[in-house]
Fold Branched-chain-amino-acid aminotransferase.
Amino acid sequence: MSALRIEQVTTKKVIPKTEDLVFGKHYTDHMFVMDYQEGKGWYDPRIVPYESITLDPAAMVFHYGQTVFEGLKAYRTEDNQIKLFRPDENFKRLNRSSERLSMPQINEKDVLNYLKELIKIDQDWVPAEDGYSLYIRPFVIATEPNLSLAPSRSYRLMIILSPVGSYYKEGIHPVGIHVEEAFTRAVKGGTGTAKTAGNYSAAYKAQEKATKEGYSQVLWLDGIEKKYIEEVGSMNVFFKINGEVVTPELNGSILEGITRMSIIELLKTWGVPLSERRISLDELFRAYEQGLVEEAFGTGTAAVISPIGELNWNGKKMIINNKETGEVAKQLYETLTGIQTGKVADPFHWTVNVR
Amino acid sequence: MSALRIEQVTTKKVIPKTEDLVFGKHYTDHMFVMDYQEGKGWYDPRIVPYESITLDPAAMVFHYGQTVFEGLKAYRTEDNQIKLFRPDENFKRLNRSSERLSMPQINEKDVLNYLKELIKIDQDWVPAEDGYSLYIRPFVIATEPNLSLAPSRSYRLMIILSPVGSYYKEGIHPVGIHVEEAFTRAVKGGTGTAKTAGNYSAAYKAQEKATKEGYSQVLWLDGIEKKYIEEVGSMNVFFKINGEVVTPELNGSILEGITRMSIIELLKTWGVPLSERRISLDELFRAYEQGLVEEAFGTGTAAVISPIGELNWNGKKMIINNKETGEVAKQLYETLTGIQTGKVADPFHWTVNVR
Ligand SMILES: Cc1ncc(COP(=O)(O)O)c(C=O)c1O
Ligand SMILES: Cc1ncc(COP(=O)(O)O)c(C=O)c1O
């Protein structure tokens, strides 16, 4: 682990009141930065004041999109500890994403240690209120100024921190979902399993359609047959059908969510019947007609669990569990947020203390 | 058209000797910049010294990939004029790309005028030597600092200029191509028809495979059936089969190349049989076995025409035209580069004089 250099701010910002927090709008006083050069590796890890970065207009990130990112959260517990939830999985996934984008690997342990130092320095920014947390955004960008079509030979890793409000101001409530048939999020052989910038802006057009129709998120189908369910918004998706919980299996275009992974482990421990398999919209609608669709929910770091109350497949509508949050969704939400905030025992050792 | 502000450099750079030029490594003295703000539109068009740009680490381009770009060239004619080749088509395509990425439209005419002013100021950088030109890279990036998953409300358009060497130091020569079956460049419903950063870095892994096998480019198949030919490297692709020129039809995942478009018009004028249609690798290999594959070449702004001498489809090899440049490829190359540099008449009015 290279020596970490720390340069503290001289004047701290005023920390916004939790009720004024807007997702992704406020950043803490410091950020972590580390550079990479081919032949030299990663160098100069440093915690510096949060500030703008300077890049050549020919920096490859602007032209050919080599960039990967992660999203995780730090939670303040009732006894005033600060916990991270499975951060090792985020840094592993960052490396998998980088591999897909021909970007260099990081030392996951070192970067986790740097992150802990950063959070310690900005610890006053970790909200204490229920449902609030500190959102952590590690990302890597290609910095070489070069218009040739080849991997960049220099990169920058940064970690920025943003205190975020509760996704659910009035508790968790089911949302309506538009099934997208024209636009494709990801396809086998593409970049869907990587957290890379290009995947996200590519999804805006479908989200626009959903919003126009009065739905809050998009259900993505596979890019090949437009038949099988993949994800919802930028979340993984689960259904409870006739007593069994079903989630699409990882197929080379679905992002391997850490919430998804944790839910699967939890349900297995609880003895809830579960299968990871291909599931078509047709199958889901057939089950619905037989009255067998009991619950549906999206899962991800931001919302943890987002129950689905309604699906609209080109005019064919499905109302799930009377638009109420189901039992499994509720239990998963309570357990996961409980573990994250230290209110519930953590038999899996998923949480990591920052201090 | 908003008033253009011009700030010239005080000290000009030394223009590199043409023989020292490396693609995309040298930039001229100035660049064009214009900003966009939701509710206000595009503002402050300006030509300023080429310099680094400053962005918030939370600028959306780094996280969600809203960025589009173009690539075109300026040529110096023998009588010392400077010409652009179909620049209106590039700005139209920039707008189509922006539409796909939920980014704002530009006024194509205004931006073309700004570009002409920029080139006039840096006109000494347009090489005069045969095969050399000034590569022009317009691009737009999302600048709003915000981690929410929604289109940015601010953008920056920039145009940078780079003198580039000839693709063919010793004349045009056929290259070997690796047929990629695992990785996918683009799929229907995705972003393949847009020139957006994410498409390009997603292609590096396949290019790595090609290079390892000793081939210089990748032949991309459709993302759905992995059966139909789409593009080669970042070029469109043409085959001459039994007297007919065939190119894959635009299908929602192929980029609409301006060289492709121009070649189609030229061949039609010449009375060469031509069809834009779906063509499978199977069909191509069957034709090859019958001795009917006469030529193959990629087309794009960078190389204009890039003849293909060999195709390797998972060990199945095809040698085309004895690895020599075919007649159609040669004629298209001479005609297109002739029109671009003013040596050949331009009945289509494709070129636009900068001065
Ligand atoms: C496309 C996509 N799917 C699913 C997820 C859920 O993953 P996680 O549970 O790790 O947050 C995310 C968010 O990270 C995502 O971006
Ligand atoms: C993916 C891709 N295909 C094809 C082309 C060829 O297009 P054009 O002839 O306009 O340069 C390009 C380059 O612009 C490209 O990026």
